[in-house]
Amino acid sequence: MPVVLQSEAAECGLACLAMVAGAHGLDTDLPTLRRRFSLSLKGVTLAEMVRMAHVLQLNTRALRAEPAELAQVQLPCVLHWDLNHFVVLVALQREEAVIHDPARGLLRLKLAELSRHFSGVLLELLPAAGFQPARERQHVSLRQLLGPVRGLKRSLLQIFMLAFALEAFVLLSPFFMQWVVDGALVSADRDLVLTLGIGFGLLVLVQAATAAARSWAVLALSASLNLQWLVNVFAHLLRLPVAWFEKRHAGDIWSRFGAVQHIQRTLTTSFIEAVLDGLLVLLTLVMMLLYSPLLTAVVLGAVAGYGLLRWVFFGPLRRASEEALVFEARQSSHFLESLRGVLAIKLFNAQGERQSRFASLVVETMNAQLTVRKLELVFTVLHRLLFGLERVAVVWLGALLVIDQRLSLGMLFAFVAYKETFAARVSALVDKAVDLKMLRLQGERLADIVLTAPELEAEAPEAQRPLDGSLELRDLRFAYADGEPEVLRGVNLRIEPGESVAIVGPSGCGKTTLLKLMLGVHAPTAGQVLVGGVPLGRAGLHAWREHVGVVMQDEPLFSGSLLDNISFFSPEPDAAWAQECARLACVHDEIAAMPMGYHTLIGDMGAALSGGQKQRLLLARALYKRPKILLLDEATSSLDVERERAVNQAIRHLALTRVIVAHRPETIQSAGRVVALHEGRVAQDLRSVPAAGAPAG
User: Is the separation of the CB atoms in 410 and 196 below 8 Å?
Assistant: First the structure.
């Protein structure tokens, strides 16, 4: 039964299905299942798991049971756990239950402890008549992970040529000992010893220079590959849909991105040299056979035994490494969340709880890492034992061959030198072969970034056409996942250029979701979004967003100066226009009063600013783009009434289309049209009545 650990925040149900399907012969993974089934951040219900299981040709039966009755159900089965989680019950052994938890891995619990977590609901899954055992996994090639890399072939050619030169030097070196022992010592020829010493000393100098050149070539390749690969993956990461980020913890994304450097280091530091040395070691094997087939057989037996040991232990090592990566990502997520929420933690006196939870995560991570290190320790001990016995056997049998005059003493010395080189290189090659196979684990994690399709760009030349400020929604429908109720249910709305529209309605009616569909952050389940009369897919997200200024709820600022944030870190910011935007947002006077004015640093995520200052700075940033359409989602909710009225008055006369999501009457009255949403539909579409003394919109 495989252990499948969840990567996304709410995919424990999907991971349980993958484990049970694997137990019955359908070898699949989470990336494959994600493509087949759409999940939201809310996770899945038992009913949705039943629906997905039927697609996988698994019959289901939902039951209620007490812990004492679990021995009567078909195993493996899925248990509802802690009222918000799913786990797989694999086996019951006396008073102990074997659990595969997608969040924690393999667990062994006493029935009394199980009863504290088990909610009493379970799901049996058995193969249906149409079920076929198969292997359905995401296949990841190194080329897919690498992407385009310039200069790779030329660098590898240089390294191969230098490696061949080094191999020639390695093959010549043992002759020095043989010729000195069998020639110079026997004849007591001092001149021959001097000549051999000078000759082989020069050979060592050339060998060292060649090795340095090869190491430098590998270092240059490593730096070039690291730079290009990191930039390529980061660029692709930024093009992924927002929904991809919403379903994952920050620590997990960072862990996956960190796989780039892990793979790069493995491939370019010692791996290239080990592979080249291992491939060229055949010449060393030929020399050993020429000296003594018997001694060569002993060495080959030791090498084969070491390779068998690594193969036997590979499965446990891979599982332990995967658990270590997942737990490390979870620890990083907790750490990052604590940093972002440190104010709330202090205000609620929750430091002790957060510290305790972090300590638990550290212990889980260390336990998983210790398992990996224990296995590596086993390999080290067995390697020393195996090759220590091999060395004793070679010297023992070699001495007998010298006594029988089938080898000279110099030939034995030379063979031992070749043998040490051969054994070291081949065992290193075995280790690197295991490392390469282990890279599939890192590759599968990185593939979650690299192989995820980016946001769709334009499909036609309409992307080059300038867009006006009109916006139209045709029978727009949207649900966050299959099986979930629709948030928007057939919304039809047309907004003309220059129009000011307020979208109102109770919380949860779909206002913010509607704005995200207008922006292309989410793709509609059905219907169309038209910008300037062109479907958004044909207009292109990049071209469309160039014309849109946006202030969303909880939108972040970035570390830097106020001018950097207003211009969104433009390399050549227009300071005069930035000040004008700040005046329109009613924040210029406050910026001017700061010690460094527009060059004042605002700290991490704008920590040095008040909530109202942040909102007005975000509005100035949106206006800096000179947009044709301005979308505001509760953009003035942190302002007092007078300041909000001043902001609305300032932007009311701008020549642009405004779409405002708001609850406050002052903001609603600033719009010329009010669209009310109710249960995902347009309930009312009215011209607003301006407040007394205010000009009509």
Answer: no
Tokens of 107: 């667990």
The answer to pTM > 0.90 is: no
Can you give the length of the chain in residues? 697
pLDDT score recorded for residue 692: 37
Question: Of the given ranges (10-19, 93-102, 267-276, 322-331), which has the lowest mean pLDDT?
Answer: 267-276
Q: Which residues of 171-208 are buried (b: 16+ CB within 10 A; e: fewer)?
A: bebbbbbbbbbbebeeeeeeeeeeebeeebeebeeebe
Phi, psi at 123, each rounded to 5°: -130, 115
Q: What is the mean pLDDT of the chain?
A: 80
> What is the maximum span of the chain, computed from C-alpha positions, in angstroms?
120
Helical packing angle, 293-312 and 314-340, nearest 10°: 40
CA dihedral of residues 662, 342, 326, 57 (deg, nearest 10) = -30
Q: Are 438 and 317 in contact (CB under 8 A)?
A: yes
Query: d(Cα 556, Cα 606) in Å, to the nearest integer?
Result: 7
Tokens of 132: 């076929």
Q: Residue range 653-657: average pLDDT?
A: 82
**What is the C-alpha separation between 148 and 224, in angstroms, rounded?**
12
Q: For strand 77-81 and strand 85-93, is the pairing parallel, antiparallel, or unpaired?
A: antiparallel
Per-residue pLDDT tens digits for 482-515: 767 888 888 899 988 888 888 888 887 888 888 8
Q: What is the pLDDT of residue 322?
A: 78
**Beta-carbon contacts of residue 619 (< 8 Å; ≥ 6 apart):** 551, 584, 585, 587, 632, 635, 636, 647, 651
Does residue 647 carry a pLDDT above 50? yes
Amino acid at 33: L
The H or E element spanning position 419 is helix 409-450
Query: Distance (Å, rounded) from C-alpha 379 to C-alpha 428?
Result: 12
Q: Which residues are catalytic?
A: 12
Residue 85 contacts by C-beta under 8 Å, 6 or more apart in sequence?
Answer: 12, 103
Mean pLDDT of 521-531: 88
Mean pLDDT in residue range 115-124: 91
Distances (CA, A) of 603 to 379, 610, 635: 49, 12, 21
Of 416, 508, 420, which is closest to residue 178 (Cα–Cα)? 416
Query: Taking 70 as the threshold, does the pLDDT of residue 162 lie above it?
Result: no
